[in-house]
Amino acid sequence: MASSRRFKLLLILLAIVSLASFSPALPALSSPHRLHSNPKGGDRRFWIADDKFWKDGEPFQIIGGDLHYFRVVPRLLRAKALGLNTIQTYVPWNLHEPSPEKWVFEGMADIESFLKIAQELGFLVMLRAGPYICAEWDLGGFPAWLLGIEPALELRSSDPAFLQLVDRWWGILLPKILPLLYTTDGGSKNTLDKGTIPGEEVYSAVDFSTGEDPWPIFQLQKKYNLPGKSPPLTAEFYTGWLTHWGEKIAVTDANSTAAALQKILSLNASAVLYMAHGGTNFGFFSGANTGENEKDYKADLTSYDYDAPIKESGDVQNLKFKALRNVIQKYSRGSLPPFPTNNEIARYGPVKVSKVASLFQVLHALCDPIQVIETDQPVSMESIGQVENLGRLNYGPYLYDRKGLLSAVILDGTILHRWRLYPVSFNKLSSILRSNPIMQVADPQNVDMTEEPRFYQGSFFIDHKNHVKDTYISFRGWTKGIAFVNNFNIGRFWPLMGPQCTLYVPAPILQHGENIVVILELHSPHPELMLNLVDNHDFSC
């Protein structure tokens, strides 16, 4: 790929994938649209003319919604029942390349299967391929190991060293998808000036706050597209909002949200609901934001429910789903699928855990001895391949967000030297703890409440395979830490800060028989060493 085209790709934030005929081949970047064979005769294509989207020879109004394959058990039939004809998703680079040239496209990272399912259900897909995605996702989707490269890379720039790594990543990703390229930017002159790419082949969309008057923003959008090439589209119609630790859970009114969507669709404009389906920041992938300055750090919750019409667990029996569905029905060509029922969520009850070991007692098992690093001064976590933290910034001018001890440590006026650094891995954590039996039987009358990182373990049984269902783990009474279910990292808990008290556990993580829960509590445990598996989320801590 020529360097000039590589630079053009860097700026692309939005790609529409026509899944009428899924193919792994990468079309030429100069092609303004892609033709597909139509089994009913003629050609199938998606293009822009007369300030409209066109699909298969007819005007097409995009009524889409964000559903992130890496945050949910894909429940696309629920999106269909909402009335959506298009699914939008990001592609997080750090999920697919967690370490240099280690490519992951299995499990929750299986983007190809997700696209094929969307194809089978008749959706178009708006694929936001990055490499930067924001999305309240750790480092905006950039792999943390980029921050360990010296000399330091200039992220989101034309830095040749940065572009070379983007080129390598997209050389793996793009052959797996079928892209048609557009861009999307904020609905102001400043963001459009910086984000758009002039030319017939590139379409510029906008996004803006829910409730804003859409018409003047769509008129501004026209100035950044060629005549007749500017169908009005808000690529992020916000159905809710994000929440940080320490804040009250964000909620928005269902009726006002539906009224704002009605106003956009009545202008024959297109809209993509952000989010259509809430999700979960599993593992260490939740991001963070800043306020007025770099010190005003705000870490995102593990839950990415977003007060979306389809909730984190797939719940659709709520006012927002009903109100938005009623609006979308008016602009749909046919009747919508039947209203779905909620998934059944299990209440497995209390689980007693026992202390297994302190973090320091099993440090030798969690860290490969050959990876122990001795340095005169501490280095960043990214420099040694350690990514656990409270979440790297995903947006704004302070995006280059290294973690760890980033300067000399001074004690009583003296700089401390000769550090030994232990990169730890939580892979196969349950088996590691079983092979290092330091288990202490818990005495509820004598629980050690001193603040020290400790592992705790418990288990619960599911007596029949038909009883394997979604659930939530309540961490009321605990302080702050990380939880694993059957070796899967379900995310951070921090009830002391709130508002999130529970972590979502999707059914595919569970199994018939014994299920093992491991907790790394960083401070003080529950006084009775108890967890509770409940049937509803709780944002009241």
From TrEMBL:
It catalyses: Hydrolysis of terminal non-reducing beta-D-galactose residues in beta-D-galactosides. Residues 387-424 form the Beta-galactosidase 1-like first all-beta domain. GO terms for molecular function: beta-galactosidase activity. It holds the Pfam family BetaGal_gal-bd. It is an enzyme of class 3 (hydrolase). Residues 1-25 form the signal peptide. InterPro entries: B-gal_1-like, BetaGal1-like_ABD1, BetaGal_gal-bd, Galactose-bd-like_sf, GH, Gly_Hdrlase_35_cat, Glycoside_Hdrlase_35. Keywords: Glycosidase, Hydrolase, Signal. Residues 52-187 form the Glycoside hydrolase 35 catalytic domain. Its EC number is 3.2.1.23. Residues 453-515 form the Beta-galactosidase galactose-binding domain. The keyword Signal applies. One of its GO terms (biological process) is carbohydrate metabolic process. The keyword Hydrolase applies. Belongs to the glycosyl hydrolase 35 family. This is beta-galactosidase. It comes from Dioscorea zingiberensis.
